[in-house]
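Input chain follows. Return structure tokens only.
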Amino acid sequence: QVQLVESGGGLVQPGGSLRLSCVASERISSILVMGWYRQAPGKERELIADITSGGTRRYSDSVKGRFTISRDNAKNTVYLQMTSLRPEDTAVYYCSAAVTGAPMMSWPPSEDDNDYWGQGTQVTASS
């Protein structure tokens, strides 16, 4: 059982930046796909970025060009660098992990394609 723990959320002014981290309890080199989802109040959870073990990245249109996903296998950590934050980026951000390539078969993938989830970290972009 892999445990994922997110950190780095907080309150930031619009236009600001934050970096989220997701640390896994086991080696992520064997985890094929890791992703970042978010859920805003009153909305469904949505995938905003994912990355494969080979380094292939995908982004939702809403964050493309502003957010960057990366992974450091040596630290068992996945990052989400967020820049030019907007009020509409306010949400709880969740880390996900899939041991198979199932999430890469479609966009957006089914949440059931993921095997593990973190508990979430709140990001609020507000003045």
